[in-house]
Amino acid sequence: MKSSPNSHQRAGAALPARLRSPALLSALLAAMPLPGWTQDASLAPVTVKAARNPRQPFDAASVQAETLQAGRASSSDTASLLRGVPGVSLNGAGGVSSLPSLHGLSDDRLRIQVDGMDLVASCPNHMNPPLSYLDPTNVGTLKVYAGITPVSVGGDSIGGTIVAETAAPQFAPDGQALLTTGELGAHYRSNNQAVGANVAATLASDRFSLNYTGATAKADNYKAGGNFKATGATGRPGHELPLDEVGSTAYETRNHTLNLALRGDGHLVEARLGYQDVPYQLYPNQRMDMLANEQQRIGLRYLGQFDWGALEARAYHEKVSHYMDFGPDKQLLYGGLPGMPMRTEGRTTGATLKATIDLTGQDLLRVGGEFQRYRLDDWWPPVAGSMGMGPNTFLNINNGKRDRTAVFGEWEKRLGPQWLTLVGARHERVSANADPVHGYNQDTFPSAAPATDRMNQGRDAASFNNANRGSTDKNWDLTALARYTASPNHDVELGVARKVRSPNLYERYTWSSANMMAVMNNFAGDGNGYIGNVNLKPETAHTLSATFDWHAADRGWELKATPYYTRVADYIDAVQWNGAANAPAAALVANKFVALRYANQSARIYGLDLSGHASLARNSLGEWGLKGLLNYTSGKNRDTGDVLYNMMPLEARLMLTHRLGAWDSGVELVMARAKNRTNDVRNEIRTPGYGLVNLHTSYTWRKLRLDFGIENLFDKFYRLPLGGAYIGQGTTMGINSVPWGIAVPGMGRSVNVGATMKF
Description:
It is built from five helices and 34 strands. It has 759 residues and is mainly beta. The protein has a single domain (55-434, 469-758), classed as Beta Barrel (Maltoporin, Chain A). The protein has a 22-stranded antiparallel barrel. Strands 1-7-8-5-6 form a five-stranded mixed beta sheet, with no helix packed on it. The radius of gyration is 26 Å and the shape is globular. It starts with 21 loop residues before the first helix and ends with a strand.
């Protein structure tokens, strides 16, 4: 068992800031095919042939460039840029780490790619999800497959795919020897005194491009629209929080990326280096806080255009070092002893190869393969002098392994001018395992419960060590989609899919039934404790979906309706657990935080997405438009009849837009129904309905853009339907040492300003 990394220090300490990848980068670049570098300097841009259809690929929605730009001023959370996409909601977490949910399925049930890398959250609370490694200012494109996902872009997931890319490399145009561009930006938000800055610079010739982007953001706790708790006590002498302050919502983050690209005649090679340093990110719905997170990543890409089609190859490696303990709003001393340190290290290596082949003028074939190797160590160092947290290291997951290999094939065919079809199959082999474990009070790996067994650590470790921990899942994904163009004003898309996801390492291999340990393993944000289950089976989802699209010939107005239905076999839900007996609870315990064990059950989800826009008027006062969005999702456990956890109630957004010259403005109304049907097994908290008004405007003058907005204009108090349970302050270590029944409130009024200068 490895010891605690020396580079990880207590909160506030400096972290190493150097990437250690030059040798790896050089070796991988040397291995890439580099044809055509001696071609004529006037080279055409490298493009990949896609489906012969001007619209997005099946079921894909792209976040508009204006939305990406405007979102920088209002949030440092990249996932927040998805709020206007049909079918998307956000599960509350840290200030830069909310978890997207597509049609009621979130977190590891989604495939989230960042620059082609399938990143994995390496944390027992999933505090470092993939999108948290991109600052909003560094997002170039953002696509969402919220319905049925083609097998070429989705695997090991049942809820959909999110594809985030940094900006594509720029090259000097014909006749220009050198291209230099740059950008400086800054933002301020009044509610939580959030400040941030970003910089970007590009130096490029017609064949070589070098780009750097950097961003930093920092914020204090935010304030709700009113008082929401009975006390401001934090368990730390002299540190009280106002009754409207949402504890543990502060954060500080720093991101750096360096992109290098070479292009030849129809060929492109890219290398992307990324580094993130998060000194702290506090969590209002978790019992611990992130007090350090360091990520290093490198991604390589080759893209080539040939007479027969296109070839794309990627390779990537990521290392994450993560540290958790109690932040300043949570009690630190228990029995006079400081904190409960928790450390995680994750390492991900992957590669993909995909070919797009022009079979005929009406047929495209996509074939490819993927590989991912993931390793995870999660250990909790002892606290000197503690009876409960020592004298040894607690091994939460010891040398966890999860390896994926996949192959897929996809055939796209145009059947005349009105029909476009897509069928695909994907096979994934997912292997998982973990080494033996022990608790705080053992220095060996027990195979039987000891005579003296504090918190049943010996019993639970022995049970885990004696179990068959290895698993190999052979998963098949199948999709079939068709688009029918009935007229220039009406399209219909129909789809059916079978999707499979294997359990993650925390679902399978967290082993302690003691309340204190269980509550530290929770990526649901509900305040409960979770225990893994080595016998979990993969989730298998069957989905039916349709999209009806009415629109003007020039898309001046548009209305879309997407009904969907999903049934999931072996859905990974949970049952209340009696840790003392190491058995299911005899009866449901209500209105308290509880311990839960993951279990396969059956579920169904159905819903409807509505979205549209229309131009209202164009006159001397400007261009007026209207945008709307409505999402409805219903989820049920078919075995127990319980409502599925974290289902967003009916939600609607309506925006009046206005453009006049360099001004671009909008007034937005956000509405949500009360959440009265909640998950009983988790004692999910009900939330009332609400309506919010947001304002924003931007002004562009030459190279300067100014953004101004007011979120929650009337300082409305509301609770987040997907925000989880408020445990952001006080004595959070005990399972019921914090009050149950307080949902995390949303942010009160905030005046947001941003400025961007391009040169």
